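Module 6 notes. Inverse folding takes a fixed backbone as the condition and produces residue identities as the prediction. Think of it as a translation problem where the source language is geometry and the target language is the twenty amino acids. Below is one complete input and output pair. Work through it position by position during the lab.
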């Protein structure tokens, strides 16, 4: 049986494309949930001690890393990539597991 995985997403919206940001967020959440994702936290970054600033962070648990990977390689997610890239200056999508 596969170990659970935690998805961590850091993102910086493009302030000139907030409609695209909202469209992406509205459309991606159902896909994340359908893929077995369980929301842990949605956070706003308040301070950056070191590194590059992101504005928001999403943390979700998935039943396995494969479940998360399959979502991001799916045609349904592929349909959102152009909106994501338009709406966000930067987005890091990380699949994590135990050390």
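Target side of the pair, the amino acids:
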């Amino acid at each position: 049986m596969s170990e659970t995985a935690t998805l961590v997403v850091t993102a910086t919206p493009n302030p000139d494309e907030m409609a695209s940001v909202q469209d992406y967020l509205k459309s991606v959440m159902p896909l994340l949930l359908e893929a077995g994702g369980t929301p842990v936290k949605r956070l706003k970054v308040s301070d950056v001690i070191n590194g590059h600033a992101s504005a928001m962070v999403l943390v979700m648990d998935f039943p396995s890393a494969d479940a998360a990977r399959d979502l991001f390689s799916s045609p349904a997610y592929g349909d959102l990539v152009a909106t994501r890239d338009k709406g966000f200056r930067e987005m890091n999508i990380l699949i994590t597991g135990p050390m």
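Reference fact for the lab report: The radius of gyration is 14 Å.
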